[in-house]
Amino acid sequence: MEYSQLYKQKLVSADEAAAVVKSGDFVDYGWCVGTPVAVDAALARRMPELFDIKLRGGILMWEPEVFKIEDPAAHFSWNSWHMGGIERKAAAKGFAFYAPIRYSELPRYYVDGADPLDVAVFQVAPMDGHGYFNFGPSASHLAEVCKKAKVLIVEVNRNMPQCLGGFENGVHISAVDMIVEGSNPPIAEMGAAGAATAVDQAVARMIVEEIPNGACLQLGIGGMPNAVGSLIAESDLKDLGVHTEMYVDAFVDIARAGKINGSRKAIDTGRQVYAFGAGTRKLYEYLDGNPACMAAPVSYTNDIRSIAALDNFISINNAVDVDLFGQVNAESAGTRNISGAGGQLDFVLGAYLSKGGKSFICLSSTFMDKKTGQLQSRIRPTLANGSIVTDTRANTHFLVTEYGKVNLKGLSAWQRAEAIISIAHPDFREELIREAEAMHIWRRSNKR
User: Fold this and answer.
1) CA separation for the pair 123, 155 (Å, rounded)
2) What is residue 89's three-state secondary structure?
C-alpha cells in the first residue's frame, strides 16, 4: 500500500482523536514546541466528563486549553518533566507537579517505567516521501514515547521545521494510529533574551577567556549563557563545536559569525548535536533542513560518555543560589519549584571528564527580594530549607559571579569557603565569614 493511501485511512478529526482518551488514562503531550494544539482543544471540550487523567509533558510554550477548564484539578493532573512559568502557575493552583528525573534518563523511563502510556499525542512535521513524520526540534525522548504508547496520534503542522539527525528524530506512519491535520499555527517562540546586563557581561568575559579554539560548547538558557554566546560570536575563536541539551538562539549567532564548524569533534564531526530546541523564528529557520545540525535523543546528547569523548568541552549553566560548601541549587526557591534537574549535572560531570573540559556555573552575586525590597546574596551559608541540590559539592567545578571565578575542584572545606566568599558581593562577605566560622569551615589564616 502506498503511504498516501495509508495516510488517508488514518486521518481523523481532532475530536475523533480526543475521543480515545478514557478516565484514568496516562496521556503524553509531547515536549516543548511539539505540544498538541488541535487535539488539546478537543480534549479540553471533553475533559469535564473525564476524571483522573494523568497528562505528561514539559517546557510548555503556551497555556494548553485543558488548563483553562473549570476546576482542572478535579479532572486531571499535569506531570512535568521540566517546569517553566506556565507550569509554575498551574502548580500554584494545585494541578501541576514536577516529576524529578535526570533528563538523560527520560527515554529509558519510557522503556522501563512502571506507569503505562495509554495515549500519546504531539505535533510533527508533514510526512515525507518515505512515510516518516519528523519530530521537529523535539527529538528528546519522543522515539521511546512512540514505542510505549498504546495509541499514537500525530498532529501535523506544516510550519514545523524538518530537523535532521542521525537516529530517532521521527516516526514512520506504520507505527502511527491516528493522524490529525491541525490549523498549522506558527511554531511557538521563546522570547529573545533582553540586552545583557553589566553583570551578565562581566560573567561572560571571565568565561570566554577560558574557551580555547576547537572547544565544544553547551549553553544553558538565560541571560548569562546568552551573553557568553554574544561574546563568542564577536571573538576571534574558531573551529568550535556544539553538543548540547537545548539548542538556543546564541548558537545561531555563533554559527553565522563563522565560529562553528565542528571540525575538531572526535564524535559527530562537523555536526551541531542537540536534544531539543526552542527560541525565535531565526532558530527554527536555521534548523529547518540544515544538515550541519543533528537532532538526537537526550539519552545520547546528555550521556556523560558522549560528553567526555569531546575534548575541551565547555559547559555553561545558571544557578538560583549556592552555599559555602559548593552545593548548587538550580531548580527551586526553597520549596517552590522553578524548573527541574534537566541535564545540568550530566554536563557538569561530563565536562570534567573531558580532556581539557570545564563546567561553569554562573550567577549574579545578588538579587532583589520583591517582597522586602532588600538586596539578598545568592551565595548563602547553607541552602535555604527545602532547596534542591542540583549539583553536589563534590561535582562543582568553576563557579562564576561578576566578582570573579573560582575552581572548587580538590579544595577542602575551608579552602572552598574562602574561594566562594571571595566572589560574593562585598556587602555580604563579613557576614558569610562569620557563618563559615560558626560552621567550622573557616581558618584564622584565611584572607579577610
Assistant:
1) 5
2) helix
Q: What is the pLDDT of residues 108-119, one digit of tens each?
A: 999 998 899 999
Q: Which of 105, 144, 155, 245 is catalytic?
A: 245
Phi/psi for 432 (5° steps) reads: -65, -35
In sequence order, which ranges of 377-438 are alpha helices (DSSP H)?
Answer: 413-422, 426-438
Q: Which amino acid is located at 175 in the chain?
A: A
- Give the other-Cβ count within 10 Å of 6's Cβ: 16
Backbone angles phi, psi at 360, to 5 degrees: -120, 125
Is 245 a residue of the active site? yes
* Nearest-angstrom CA–CA distance, 134 and 162: 6
Cα 202 to Cα 199: distance, rounded to the nearest angstrom:
5
The pLDDT score that the predictor gives to residue 369 is 86
Closest CA to 82 of 256, 332, 259: 332
Q: What domains sit in the chain, N to C, each tagged with a CATH number?
A: 3-181 (3.40.1080.10), 198-438 (3.40.1080.20)
Q: What is the 3-state secondary structure (H, E, C) of 282-346?
A: HHHHHHCCCCCEEECCHHHHCCHHHHHCCCCEEEEEECCEEECCCCEECCEECCEECCCCCCHHH
What predicted TM-score, i.e. pTM, was given to this entire model?
A: 0.95
